[in-house]
Amino acid sequence: MEVTRQNFKDSLTTVYSAIEEADFLAIDGEFSGISDGPNVSALTNGLDTPEERYMKLKKHSMDFLLFQFGLCTFTYDEAASEYVIKTFNFYIFPKPFNRTSPDIKFICQSSSIDFLASQGFDFNKVFRHGIPYLNQEEEVQLREQYEERRNQSNGSGTTSYISPNANKGLGGVPEEHRDYIKRVIEKVESLFTTSEKTVDLDPCTGFQRKLIYQTLNWKFPKGLHVETLETDKKERYIQISKVDDEERKRRERQKQEREQEELNDAVGFSRVIHAISKSGKLVVGHNMLLDVMHTIHQFYCVLPEDLNDFKEVTQCVFPRLLDTKLMATTQPFKELINNTSLAELQKQLKESPFKPPKVVTAGGFPSYDTAQEQLHEAGYDAYITGLCFISMANYLGTFLTPPKGHIPARSKLIEPFFNKLFLMRIIDIPYLNISGPDRNIQVSWIDDTSAFVCLSQTDQVQIAMNTSRYAESYRIQTYAEYLQGRRHVRENQAQGSQAWGEDGWVKPHYAPVPGTAAGDYRSSSGKRSISPIQEEQAQTTPTDGWSGNTHTHTHPDQGSKKIKTDGLCVRTYAGVVDSRTSEGWLKTQSGSDSSSMSPIQEETAEETSETAGGAWQQQPSANQSKKGRKVKKRKTDDAETTSLFDVPQVW
């Protein structure tokens, strides 16, 4: 169902009813752009911390407009063993409904507009018939303005423009306006001597209207009803009516009812979001962090600066969220799904071992045919997001004894996925945990045998360094030592000597493993997790544009995190904690195959992966070939699986 400003009020009851009866809700949004500065790769850098990712999106994405909101409600019919769906496609535009309402500024990104236009998006419906909205602060301000005007029209309000001598009649009117006010009084006096019941004054300024209200309340305390109206050309004028006390009260009530209706119209689409929030229903989205941020920013409040405050606000607005992209990239689904873009995910979930859900469209609602894709229409995207959730949830039911074909939205089987939002391209912190602390270790692979590792606490760095001194299967060095080694390699190659290892590792102060040349460390695991960067390049200053500090070494496009520690500015780069005391580290690590995950194809064709735990690598056996190391890791019956979070035992 398409909903615009023209049919919004008539559709509200239907929307409220659909939300109330639903088992869960699926949402999706379309925006006027994504980033006002950095490209998408920089905006979603693979080495961001959750705090950095949130701050980047807040800074560079919130000035765009969410102008189409898709809502699909799913209600399970036990008797028919099917879901009944109701889909709504809301067109949204912050049109000022009067001169005192907010006049919203927003920006557009040409590539986004061009893309939506190529998909047949109807921009006329947005700009001509889009539903207005107010956030909570704007709504409160508007109510206060209404109350102030009501008090002024009743003669009880305070008028900042009026002289303190206002109660002395014309003596409180500025000299330059007295002739005008006298003419108004004459028109009103003549109204009492004729059979006419109303007189309309010519359009005038806001200050003149205030003078008229003040003077008429003083001059004619009874027998008149004074009201400000608006012409078709948006010009405001005053209408004066001759009434008795009973009629005057009736008109005042009517005026207040109209004002309340105007206020509700101004709040507009925010009323739908309030209903979703109040319902407490599970809200499902796909790669939905931006959808959640825009929804809160436009319809509730300006996003807070602190990530933890954002989490708190999000839980108040949406008590239960589920991201189908995160679900698809997590056990037990990640070994079965090789492409998690929404369209491809929906196609894969139609095939074995999954089953497409049985759904029917409620009467009076348009039905969608997934064979004829309508991608990037928010209502359709919300619809197929819901289908993906049902297929994956029902698949979890096959692990039960006996198996269950239907898993409801409140099942404990899907609770591990609640309130965890997918973070694009971040390898070792794949989700933002809305209801708890985030994971705080990152691993970024340089090649098959080396990786950057980030620790959240700098005091752990020295512990790791001390522990590794007697290790035989791996080596650790600080990031500063790594950069120094790379420089020495280049210098010594130019001079024809070799003081450092060819791989840029500082030669260890302990003896190498017997029978093994220093630096000859290879992986015995399967295909490695691909880093957002393909090869570490030594730099002396950050070039990502996110920080003004230049004394810390980093790779281009790598995000940074500042931490105050004993007066030092500590920064986290590419899994390296680097400060002026060089407390950063790079490591390789020995371990099992479970530490090296298969990459998951990203929507923009980049490869990302989820590594659970660490990134230790050990020497291979003699019969292990390079080709064997490159093949994609296969799951074995006795393989040890590592989950991103606690899951039910049945998994």
TrEMBL record:
<dbReference type="Pfam" id="PF04857">
    <property type="entry name" value="CAF1"/>
</dbReference>
<keyword id="KW-0378">Hydrolase</keyword>
<dbReference type="InterPro" id="IPR036867">
    <property type="entry name" value="R3H_dom_sf"/>
</dbReference>
<dbReference type="InterPro" id="IPR012677">
    <property type="entry name" value="Nucleotide-bd_a/b_plait_sf"/>
</dbReference>
<dbReference type="InterPro" id="IPR051181">
    <property type="entry name" value="CAF1_poly(A)_ribonucleases"/>
</dbReference>
<feature type="region of interest" description="Disordered">
    <location>
        <begin position="144"/>
        <end position="173"/>
    </location>
</feature>
<dbReference type="Pfam" id="PF08675">
    <property type="entry name" value="RNA_bind"/>
</dbReference>
<keyword id="KW-0540">Nuclease</keyword>
<dbReference type="GO" id="GO:0005634">
    <property type="term" value="C:nucleus"/>
</dbReference>
<feature type="compositionally biased region" description="Polar residues">
    <location>
        <begin position="522"/>
        <end position="551"/>
    </location>
</feature>
<feature type="compositionally biased region" description="Polar residues">
    <location>
        <begin position="616"/>
        <end position="625"/>
    </location>
</feature>
<dbReference type="InterPro" id="IPR034042">
    <property type="entry name" value="PARN_R3H"/>
</dbReference>
<dbReference type="GO" id="GO:0000289">
    <property type="term" value="P:nuclear-transcribed mRNA poly(A) tail shortening"/>
</dbReference>
<dbReference type="GO" id="GO:0046872">
    <property type="term" value="F:metal ion binding"/>
</dbReference>
<feature type="compositionally biased region" description="Basic and acidic residues">
    <location>
        <begin position="554"/>
        <end position="563"/>
    </location>
</feature>
<keyword id="KW-0269">Exonuclease</keyword>
<dbReference type="GO" id="GO:0005737">
    <property type="term" value="C:cytoplasm"/>
</dbReference>
<feature type="region of interest" description="Disordered">
    <location>
        <begin position="582"/>
        <end position="651"/>
    </location>
</feature>
<feature type="compositionally biased region" description="Polar residues">
    <location>
        <begin position="587"/>
        <end position="601"/>
    </location>
</feature>
<dbReference type="InterPro" id="IPR006941">
    <property type="entry name" value="RNase_CAF1"/>
</dbReference>
<keyword id="KW-0539">Nucleus</keyword>
<feature type="domain" description="R3H">
    <location>
        <begin position="175"/>
        <end position="244"/>
    </location>
</feature>
<dbReference type="InterPro" id="IPR001374">
    <property type="entry name" value="R3H_dom"/>
</dbReference>
<dbReference type="GO" id="GO:1990431">
    <property type="term" value="P:priRNA 3'-end processing"/>
</dbReference>
<dbReference type="InterPro" id="IPR012337">
    <property type="entry name" value="RNaseH-like_sf"/>
</dbReference>
<dbReference type="GO" id="GO:0003723">
    <property type="term" value="F:RNA binding"/>
</dbReference>
<dbReference type="GO" id="GO:1990432">
    <property type="term" value="P:siRNA 3'-end processing"/>
</dbReference>
<dbReference type="InterPro" id="IPR014789">
    <property type="entry name" value="PolyA-riboNase_RNA-binding"/>
</dbReference>
<protein>
    <recommendedName>
        <fullName>Poly(A)-specific ribonuclease PARN</fullName>
        <ecNumber>3.1.13.4</ecNumber>
    </recommendedName>
</protein>
<dbReference type="GO" id="GO:0004535">
    <property type="term" value="F:poly(A)-specific ribonuclease activity"/>
</dbReference>
<comment type="similarity">
    <text>Belongs to the CAF1 family.</text>
</comment>
<keyword id="KW-0479">Metal-binding</keyword>
<feature type="region of interest" description="Disordered">
    <location>
        <begin position="516"/>
        <end position="563"/>
    </location>
</feature>
<keyword id="KW-0694">RNA-binding</keyword>
<feature type="compositionally biased region" description="Polar residues">
    <location>
        <begin position="152"/>
        <end position="166"/>
    </location>
</feature>
<dbReference type="InterPro" id="IPR036397">
    <property type="entry name" value="RNaseH_sf"/>
</dbReference>
<keyword id="KW-0963">Cytoplasm</keyword>
